[in-house]
Each structure stands twice: as C-alpha cells, then as structure tokens.
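agent> Task received from the user: take the single chain below, predict its 3D structure, and emit structure tokens. No templates, no multimer pairing.
agent> Plan: (1) validate residues, (2) run structure prediction, (3) serialize to tokens, (4) report one or two observations.
agent> Step 1 OK, no nonstandard residues flagged.
tool_call: predict_structure(input=
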Amino acid sequence: MIRDLAIRSVAEGHDPLSTKVRDVMTPGITYCFDDQDLEEAAKIMEDKQIRRLPVLNREKRLIGIVSLGDLAVRSHDDRLAEELLECVSEPA
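)
tool_result: status=success, residues=92
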C-alpha cells in the first residue's frame, strides 16, 4: 500500500493533495475467506507473491488482514512459514 503511494505517486511527481487513490492503487483484489485453512491462505499469498491478504466473511465483508508475520508467529507450523516467506520473497 505505502509502496504504491511511493512508486506511483511521489516518485512520479504527483501532487498528494490532488491525486486520487484510484490513480495509484493496485487494481484487483486478492483475498481469502475466514473459514479457509492456513495452507489455502498461504498458497494464495505464494501464488500472488503478496505479503498481506484481506480476509472476508462469506458475505464478502472485510473482517481483517492476514500477513506473512501473522502466519510466521501464529501458525505453529514452522515449515509453512519458512516456505511462504521464501516463495513470496523471490522475484516474480
């Protein structure tokens, strides 16, 4: 998110007071549902090479965000956390 602002706005000389969010955002949303298991969320993050994943309920309302750090600290699966960090950190 901050990266989008830095790369697409500030670095290109756009005025932050007049530039619209739509002009610097990443289009499309990748997300998971709150009832999916960690392996599924990790696979999405790995496939899309993203470090944060919005979490929706089945009514498609945003209820949170899961991050690489969350998975590393709370998953109790060191292999999953290590593999995800390695895959997401690789250049696309």
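agent> Step 4: summary for the user.
Helices lie at 2-10, 38-48, 68-74, 78-89.
agent> Done.
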